[in-house]
Recover the amino acids of this structure.
């Protein structure tokens, strides 16, 4: 065993599974290439496991007995949130129903909640002035989203003799636009039918296809885009307007500010509590340094 926490042995596969989860997270964010950061990720994995184990150990010490009704109620809620018992067992990765194991895991969750509730105590109640100061200091987090107003000319590949023909048509349209033709007039001439939108109105990121938004949000007002493709066909678009992010009025986000201040206060308490548990824990890590640095390629 590479990791022993207060006498509790952690299976190597548990560490490997957490390591894969951590590395996968960074890979999805494109922040890692091959194995260059494996020792760092393995350290994160062990720290995650250490925190969880210490929390569970302390919760069992403080709350040795859990009310069966509380376990049943929590389990029923989890099953309901999952959409049913079958979906629940699939979500937790259990190939068959083992109620005893599940109830023990749920009991651990109840213990943890009870312990943390005791540690956190009553929620802080920030004053109006404190919330306004927090709002000002974190103003970048309380901004409206950038929006743009765009229009486009599009031709579908449906019924086309070839992609090349459609592209050449769209390239010719773009040349006319660059020569000074009115965008909306030309768009009407090439409109497939009245259902096809030309003026897309105002929108923010995430409301259209990523390929389209990448082009549109990169443009200057009045600019004519290159011919580009999405799953709907070929496009040429123009930017009619842009609204930059602006501060959202304090009164509109007041409740969100208050909740964030409460959550941040809890985070500080939680971190301090974890560090206190680590400081008094008996932790044995027998993983050799050369194994930590192994790439496996």
């Amino acid at each position: 065993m590479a990791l022993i926490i207060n006498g509790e042995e952690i299976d190597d596969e548990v560490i490997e599974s957490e390591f894969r989860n951590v590395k996968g997270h960074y890979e999805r964010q494109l922040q890692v290439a091959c194995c260059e950061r494996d020792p760092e990720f393995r350290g994160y994995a062990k720290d995650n496991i250490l925190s969880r184990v210490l929390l569970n150990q302390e919760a069992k010490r403080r709350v040795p007995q859990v009310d069966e009704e509380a376990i049943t109620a929590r389990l029923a809620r989890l099953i309901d949130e999952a959409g049913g018992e079958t979906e629940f067992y699939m979500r937790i990765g259990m190939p068959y129903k083992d109620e005893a194991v599940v109830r023990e895991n749920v009991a651990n969750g109840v213990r943890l909640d009870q312990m943390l509730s005791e540690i956190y105590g009553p929620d802080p109640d920030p004053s109006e002035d404190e919330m306004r100061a927090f709002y000002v200091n974190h103003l970048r987090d309380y901004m409206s989203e950038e929006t743009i107003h765009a229009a486009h000319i599009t031709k579908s590949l449906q019924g086309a003799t070839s992609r090349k023909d459609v592209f050449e048509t769209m390239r010719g349209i773009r040349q006319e636009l660059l020569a000074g033709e009115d965008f909306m007039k030309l768009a009407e001439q090439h409109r497939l039918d009245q259902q096809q939108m030309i003026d897309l109105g105002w929108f923010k990121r995430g409301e259209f296809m990523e390929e389209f938004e990448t082009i549109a949000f990169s443009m200057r007002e009045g600019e004519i885009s290159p011919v580009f493709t999405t799953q709907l066909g070929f496009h040429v678009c123009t930017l009619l307007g842009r609204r930059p992010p602006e501060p959202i009025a304090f009164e509109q986000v007041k409740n969100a500010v208050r909740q964030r201040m409460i959550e941040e206060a809890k985070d500080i308490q939680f971190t301090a509590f974890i560090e206190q548990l680590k400081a008094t824990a008996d932790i044995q890590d027998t993983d050799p340094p050369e194994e930590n640095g192994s790439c496996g390629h």
Notes: DSSP finds eleven helices and seven strands in the chain. Residues 144-243 form a domain with the Chitinase A; domain 3 fold (CATH 3.10.50.40). The chain has two domains: 3-123+257-292, 144-243. The first helix runs from residue 12 to 28.
